[in-house]
């Protein structure tokens, strides 16, 4: 069995208004050394497969078909055997 940890973020070319608000708030609280904040999503998906290659293929397929909007988002993932 594998566990996929999936990180989804907006592409650099897409404005991130939520990240801008957080950055401004950090600045107001005294953290003036934070030039940028980007907000994203984190998902954990358990897969009952025996083969690491099959787990990777399934996670890529899930991301490409449902979990990620490829027009405005990028993703990375890591697999952990559990």
TrEMBL record:
Pfam families: PurS. Its EC number is 6.3.5.3. It catalyses: N(2)-formyl-N(1)-(5-phospho-beta-D-ribosyl)glycinamide + L-glutamine + ATP + H2O = 2-formamido-N(1)-(5-O-phospho-beta-D-ribosyl)acetamidine + L-glutamate + ADP + phosphate + H(+). Keywords: ATP-binding, Cytoplasm, Ligase, Nucleotide-binding, Purine biosynthesis. It is found in: Cytoplasm. InterPro entries: PurS, PurS-like_sf. It is an enzyme of class 6 (ligase). GO terms for cellular component: cytoplasm. Pathway: Purine metabolism; IMP biosynthesis via de novo pathway; 5-amino-1-(5-phospho-D-ribosyl)imidazole from N(2)-formyl-N(1)-(5-phospho-D-ribosyl)glycinamide: step 1/2. GO terms for molecular function: ATP binding; phosphoribosylformylglycinamidine synthase activity. It comes from the Bacteria. SUPFAM superfamilies: PurS-like. One of its GO terms (biological process) is 'de novo' IMP biosynthetic process. Belongs to the PurS family. Part of the FGAM synthase complex composed of 1 PurL, 1 PurQ and 2 PurS subunits. HAMAP family: PurS (MF_01926). PANTHER family: PHOSPHORIBOSYLFORMYLGLYCINAMIDINE SYNTHASE SUBUNIT PURS (PTHR34696). Part of the phosphoribosylformylglycinamidine synthase complex involved in the purines biosynthetic pathway. Catalyzes the ATP-dependent conversion of formylglycinamide ribonucleotide (FGAR) and glutamine to yield formylglycinamidine ribonucleotide (FGAM) and glutamate. The FGAM synthase complex is composed of three subunits. PurQ produces an ammonia molecule by converting glutamine to glutamate. PurL transfers the ammonia molecule to FGAR to form FGAM in an ATP-dependent manner. This is Phosphoribosylformylglycinamidine synthase subunit PurS.
């Amino acid at each position: 069995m594998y566990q996929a940890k999936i990180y989804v973020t907006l592409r650099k070319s897409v404005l991130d208004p939520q990240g801008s608000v957080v950055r401004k708030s950090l600045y107001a609280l005294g953290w003036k050394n934070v030039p940028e904040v980007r907000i994203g999503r984190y998902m954990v998906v358990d897969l009952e497969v025996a083969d690491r290659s099959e787990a990777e293929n399934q996670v890529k397929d899930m991301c490409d078909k449902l979990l990620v909007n490829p027009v405005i988002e990028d993703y990375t993932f890591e697999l952990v055997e559990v």
